[in-house]
Design a protein that fits this description.
By secondary structure, the protein is α/β, with parallel strands linked by helices. Helices cover 41% and strands 24% of the residues. The chain has a 5-stranded mixed sheet with strand order 4-3-5-12-6, covered by helices on one side.
Length: 279
């Protein structure tokens, strides 16, 4: 019999297109995804997904179940937001999401909140993609962006700049550490694509933090946000790149903005994050 967990599995597989990320999203073993999908297709008497070029694409029957799963997720997320938005105590967990490059700054925000509100605890989801706040994947997003989604509300914490960095004391004609296709839409990746020849690239990474680590190891030079280089033995090469100036925002779903624990975190975090970006 079809269960809520089955619908969540179908939705995750349709969203990711592959079993591995679906298993990660659901926090289950990969074998569970394969086994349960096989059982569901046997129960339905028809395939729910076509396997096309390594991608799992919903069949017409699968698409019907994906629509049902999406509606169920939306209803469940709405109930969670309403429940969280109605609480009046400064206690409970807050799920934060941020890219790896901001982890050093975000980590320093948590102890002051805990000292003032010992009942608040955190889950930190490190990801370079925006969490789906409507589906309650996170409650607070701390993101570098100049155009935050209109579906979220929050406040601008500050601005930052990009420059080229390399290990302290190294020459300026080092090869490049670039960003891979998973980050191709961010401004830094577009700048690298426009200014760096393929033969000059010695390493591609899917993480700003990894780029900074590789640069600090002396492998090459990397285009990095100015706040990130402080965690490494790196020197700036040349001027800041004005076209890449950006901002850091703290964002929440509108239904949660008046939740006491969320308000308490935002009030303390915004000022401290602003001071760190100015340092």
């Amino acid at each position: 019999m079809l269960s809520t967990d089955d619908l969540l599995l179908i939705a995750a597989l349709a969203r990711s297109g592959k079993p591995v990320p679906a298993a990660t999203r659901l926090n289950v073993h990969l074998a569970t995804v394969y086994r349960r999908l096989k059982e569901l297709e046997q129960e339905a008497g028809a395939p729910l997904f076509q396997r096309l070029g390594g991608q799992y694409v919903p069949t017409p029957l699968g698409s019907e179940l994906v629509r049902a799963a999406t509606a169920m997720e939306a209803n469940l997320a709405e109930a969670r937001r309403q429940l969280a938005g109605g609480e009046q105590r400064l206690a409970g967990r807050i799920t934060l999401t941020t890219p790896d490059s901001l982890v050093p700054l975000v980590s320093t925000l948590l102890p002051p909140v805990r000292r003032k509100h010992a009942g608040i605890r955190f889950d930190l989801v490190v990801s370079n993609t925006f969490a789906d706040m409507a589906r309650y994947e996170a409650e607070v997003a701390i993101r570098p962006t100049r155009s935050p989604p209109e579906t979220l509300v929050g406040q601008r914490a500050g601005a930052f700049r990009y420059a080229i960095y390399a290990k302290s004391g190294t020459r300026e004609d080092l090869p490049w550490i670039a960003l891979d296709d998973s980050l191709s839409t961010i401004p830094a990746a577009r700048w690298l694509a426009a200014h760096v020849a393929q033969e000059e690239i010695v390493l591609r990474v899917n993480s700003m933090w990894a780029a900074a680590q590789a640069a600090a190891a002396g492998l090459g030079r990397a285009l990095l946000p100015d706040y990130l280089h402080r965690s490494f033995d790196l020197d700036r090469q040349g001027d800041f790149i004005g076209a890449l100036e950006s901002e850091v925002w703290l964002l929440v779903h509108p239904d949660l903005r008046r939740t006491p624990r969320i308000q308490a975190f935002m009030d303390l975090a915004a000022g401290r994050l602003r001071a760190q970006l100015k340092a």
